[in-house]
Amino acid sequence: MMADKVMTRDELAKYNGQAGQPAYVAVEGVIYDVSAKPAWQGGRHHGNLAGQDLTDVLLEKSPHGKRVLKDLPVVGRLAE
């Protein structure tokens, strides 16, 4: 079930995993909560920052591909 919340890129940027904020990332318009992943501690993972659309990074540069998304909580959608 997809969360109903829609966020703009500016709103997403607030969820950068720092100063007590959760860490969210967007991929293909879907926003995922990566806060519980140890690899995303502090809102950073291999030079990538939470609070951003990481579609290109995940699909074109990551060795993991989309399979890393399957167990992540969906928190909303990215506004177009």
Q: Would you identify the CATH architecture?
A: Roll
Q: What is the SS-derived class?
A: alpha/beta
For the record, the count of structural domains works out to 1
Radius of gyration, rounded? 11 Å
| Major beta sheet summary | 5 strands, mixed
The oligomerization state is single chain
Helix tally?
2
Mean pLDDT: 92
End-to-end Cα distance: 20 Å
Shape call: globular
Brief digest:
This protein has helices at residues 9-13, 55-61, and strands at residues 6-7, 24-27, 30-33, 44-45, 48-49, 52-53, 74-78. It is of the alpha/beta class and 80 residues long. Strand 4 and strand 5 (48-49) form a beta hairpin.
Report what the structure shows:
The protein is an alpha/beta fold. The chain has a single domain (6-78), classed as Flavocytochrome B2, Chain A, domain 1, CATH 3.10.120.10. Helices cover 15% and strands 26% of the residues. It is built from two helices and seven strands. The protein has helices at 9-13, 55-61; strands spanning 6-7, 24-27, 30-33, 44-45, 48-49, 52-53, 74-78. The strands form two sheets. Strands 1-7-3-2-6 form a five-stranded mixed sheet. It has a two-stranded antiparallel ribbon with strand order 4-5. Strand 2 and strand 3 form a beta hairpin. It is globular, with a radius of gyration of 11 Å. 24% of the residues are buried. The model has no long low-confidence stretch (mean pLDDT 92). It holds the Pfam family Cyt-b5. Residues 7-79 form the Cytochrome b5 heme-binding domain. This is Cytochrome b5-like Heme/Steroid binding domain protein.
